[in-house]
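Lab notebook: predicted structure, single chain.

Context: the supervisor wants predicted structures on file for every construct in the current expression panel, including those that have not yet been purified. This is the next one on the list. No modifications to the sequence; it matches the entry in the shared construct table.
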Amino acid sequence: MTIRIVIADDHHVVRTGFAGLLDTQPDFTVVGTAPDGALAVRLCQEVCPDLVLMDVRMPVMDGIEATRALSDGPRVLILTTFDLDEYVFDALRAGASGFLLKDVTAERLFEAVRVVASGDALLAPAVTRRLIAEFARLRPPSTPVVVDALTLRETEVLRLVAEGLSNSEIAARLNVTEQTVKTHVSHVLAKLSLRDRTQAVVAAYESGLVVPRSVSP
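Prediction complete. Output recorded below exactly as produced.
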């Protein structure tokens, strides 16, 4: 299956560089690029990509607004130059499924695109966990997330997801099968009306279920 990709960045060199890099992979097809968020949204409506590599700071419409506008469309993988970008947490709240620095290695970029396009969220890098924790600590939630609807086991799984554990790691921790963990995660997302694991992590912090100091650097 080919993953159709749109690249949104206001720097021409960055757009062409990432496009050339991604086109080296047989399962990737770059179907368009855009220099700002507004054109990215319009382009996505025309070509219907599976995933958008989205810069945060762009003219006309920034990456956060563009991500919000695409909330019912392709998955969004945020790209930024700064590992402590003040807008990253806002982008996650807007519906982004992952976050990468622009100095990412080619192998890591390829992996990230495949992970996010498959429907998962990119939460493995420690920097992502630190960012989510830091912004959850600094910014009060605009809309409190209620987790009372979850069972005790679902709450436990959500806490472990928020701590950055993969399904296999959660399964080992709880002494259950990986399929059981996937089922619990699906129930959590459905009950809390969340799109993916990234939003589940944000919800865990916003609800107070997990506090920032519990996340390892």
